[in-house]
Amino acid sequence: MKKTVLTFVMALFAIAAFAQNEENKSYIPNGYQGFLEESNCWHFDKEMPATIQLSTTHGFYFNDHIYAGIGVGLEFNADYFLMPFYTNVRYVFLNNKAVSPFISMRLGSFVSDNMGAYGDLALGVRFSSKKDFAVSVMVAGTYYDNLHYNYYYNEYYDEHGEWHYEYAEKNISPSGISLRVGIEW
After folding, report:
1. What is the pLDDT of residues 46-60, one digit of tens each?
2. DSSP letter string, the chain
3. What is the CATH number of the domain that holds 24?
């Protein structure tokens, strides 16, 4: 897994380096810009199956390099869901090229059975058009506080017809690494 992610990151930066010879200039708008992103997350906790992440962020490019906005996401699989709320800051390095590397950071909190801290750091490449539309591909590391929930493992009716259950607390860590694809408009 580590070799796959490292190879992917190196390929993203190689694409950005080769694209610098292009004659096309990209367009980074000033003002409002929205993002819609989808990713698959592989968690560091082996008990956690992979999840799907969907997020939308809305904010402003303040100049040709810096974007800031707020967003909401949804991460889910068959067993659970998380809903992060965050602020997002993005820095585009080569803003005058059609293919530009960038770094993006999200900080906030999440809601699930309980609440906790959320953070995300992504490195990627932005493929832009001459309009205010772009496609991004990135590798992201995501941090969530541990989830604490009651795991019901024995539920039954007794001989008097009363409902009983036995449970144990379970802690899982949904932090992981993901490959993310997004569009901006």
Report:
1. 878 899 999 999 999
2. -HHHHHHHHHHHHHHHHHGGG--PPP---SEEEEEEEEEEEEESSTTSPPEEEEEEEEEEE-SSSEEEEEEEEEEE-SS-EEEEEEEEEEEES-TTSSEEEEEEEEEEEEESSSEEEEEEEEEEEEEE-SSS-EEEEEEEEEEEPPEEEEEEEEEEE-TTS-EEEEEEEEEE---EEEEEEEEE-
3. 2.40.160.20
